[in-house]
Amino acid sequence: MGHQRLGVLPRSRDWQQVIALIPEGAEVNIVAAATSKAAEASMIDASADPAVRHAFWLLTQIPLAARQKNFVAALGHLGLSRVPAQPTLADIVSGMMDAIDAAIGRSRGRTDFGEMAQLSASESLIAVVGSELRDLFGTTSDQVKLALAGLATVKQFSVLARDYVARLARRHLSYFLSRTLSDHVGPGRRFSSVREHRSFEEALDLHCRETTRIIKEFSGEWFSKRIYEGGIDQEQAGRFVHAAFQKVREELRHRRKAEHV
């Protein structure tokens, strides 16, 4: 199966507007708003990507598996078949990546956005679980299991869901911005140094996290309700992802109007 890439934006009028804003020294929120407008069509398509949906489904299921007596067997049922008897967080993340790969192999093949989804899911799990562990590399399997099980609550799952969507939105914007930002680093350019370029990237990350604040507001209750009503299947996970990206697009559109972009 081939690798499917996201749409080519540099030829579009919206993308030319983004390119024009960068050397003008526009603030990150304005550049982000213009980029989201240029990339909106690909974001709509991305919400239906099988890797995006499967990655999110696993994020809903791994915390529930951690609440089972036989954690490893529960992970195996999710497709994490190569996890050892006493898994570390790294083992579980690696197993999740393999499970997503296997799921993609049964569908339409790899896409750029699917790879972003894999990376975002793994980073979110490491970041959110790691924040509950004092030493990420010196913890026991039982401590990792306990931390993962703690994500199966309204409060903690909302943190995980928002982190995943924020990272994915950030990567989506960067996928297109990275094509032109590097051309504006150096003396007399938009970014006089690599440090300034890095600061812009950090500001873009913060912008995406602020944009996805709404995800935190409804994801925890959604998770709790679905579990109460019998569980979360992949179709339900897919509908959540679609709704989440719709909310992100609406927020980005609102910010564009506020910035008159």
Q: What keywords describe this structure?
A:
261 residues; 70% helix; mainly alpha; two-stranded parallel ribbon
What is the strand and helix layout of this fold?
Elements: E1 3-4, H1 13-21, H2 28-38, H3 40-46, H4 50-65, H5 71-77, H6 89-105, E2 110-111, H7 112-130, H8 141-149, H9 154-181, H10 194-211, H11 213-228, H12 234-259
Parallel strand pairs: 1-2
Helix pairs in contact: 1-2, 2-12, 4-6, 4-7, 4-12, 6-7, 7-9, 9-10, 9-11
Notes on the structure:
With 261 residues, the protein is mainly alpha-helical. It has one domain (6-259). It contains 12 helices and 2 strands, in the order βααααααβαααααα. The chain has helices at residues 13-21, 28-38, 40-46, 50-65, 71-77, 89-105, 112-130, 141-149, 154-181, 194-211, 213-228, 234-259; strands spanning 3-4, 110-111. The chain has a two-stranded parallel ribbon. α4 packs antiparallel against α6, α4 (50-65) packs across α12 (234-259) and α9 (154-181) packs antiparallel against α10 (194-211). The chain is globular. The chain starts with a strand and ends with a helix. The mean pLDDT is 83.
